[in-house]
């Protein structure tokens, strides 16, 4: 199956996801521990995206394959958080988290991580 999301589109989506992680919990007035956790996740997510060799990356130090590994680790972290008290403390936090995890997983599964390569040195 051909995957519809190329590296550039993935980068744009990742910036949108970072905004959701950084702003969403505060705008929804979720518990402080949840907000802090998502701020850390969103900051790391932004750093990886900005460092990836795509049209929207800034430093272009990471290949898309390395970005893919970071995305897999991020998804594992989000999945592990699903059973934590931070997420399950309130219904709104759980709904936000599960919705975001679902969107992040969909983005991962639909991305063609081979659509760009780090230029030769």
Task: Supply Rg.
Answer: 15 Å
Please count the beta strands (DSSP E, at least 2 residues each). 0
Q: Secondary-structure element sequence?
A: HHHHH
| Number of helical elements | 5
Termini Cα gap: 32 Å
The helix content, as a percent range, equals 55-70%
Q: How is the biggest beta sheet arranged?
A: none
Name the structural class: mainly alpha
Outline: globular
Strand content: under 5%
Kindly report the average pLDDT value. Answer: 94
Low-pLDDT runs of 5+ residues are none
Number of domains: 1
Description:
It is a single chain. It contains five helices and no strands. It has helices spanning 7-27, 32-50, 64-81, 85-88, 91-110. It starts with 6 loop residues before the first helix and ends in an 11-residue tail after the last helix. 25% of the residues are buried. The model has no long low-confidence stretch (mean pLDDT 94).
